[in-house]
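Quarterly update from the structural biology core.
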Amino acid sequence: MAEPKPRDLAALLLALTVVTGVVDAVSFLGLGRVFVANMTGNVVFLGFAAAGEATLSVLASLTAVLAFLAGALAGGRLARRDDDHDALRQATAVQAALVAVAVVLSATLGAGPRVGSELLIVVLGVAMGLQNAAVRRIGAPDLTTTVLTMTLTGFAADSKAAGGPGAHPLRKVAAVGAMLVGALAGGLLQLHVAMWTALTLALVLILGVLAVLHLNRGRDRRPPAAAGP
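Predicted structure, tokenized:
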């Protein structure tokens, strides 16, 4: 497929970073203090829960980690069959379908019953694992769409103030801002409206990314214009 231009690709990955903020807001605030994208947090939560912290669930954190691994496994296999950007397109299509399922589940079952929460954790965890595997294959610097620790480290350690080259400072700030915006929007919708509305926002963003990826692919397949006489 036609690879998006670097600026276009950065915009797509920033949109997926917003998605991460939205779904983690939903999972943490609505599914029992668990993350479906931030696996570092879940590993720490597992330790806290095992130590006896009653507000955290070993089952929820473990479910999220296993679902994420399943999604990453599927995304890894997909990435090895296609070129980088086509793998991202296919992974995003599957991710959109999974998030659409989560919207329906949240609007019908809700997160009240334990089974509803666990199903949502599984579906969203797989979706975010897929996203991370596809984005990892592309390897865009500072745009992992999920982990900000190294982005913030690079922002400070690679800055000119630290004697570094100061490469892509705006990209690093934009990645942090995108996560913050997603978490804010997802948190507001989760706390003051309904879970399904926050997940619908995530779905709309994913569909937008998918539309751009399909558009680039379509341009690549267009026949060349006929030469003049």
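The first helix runs from residue 6 to 30.
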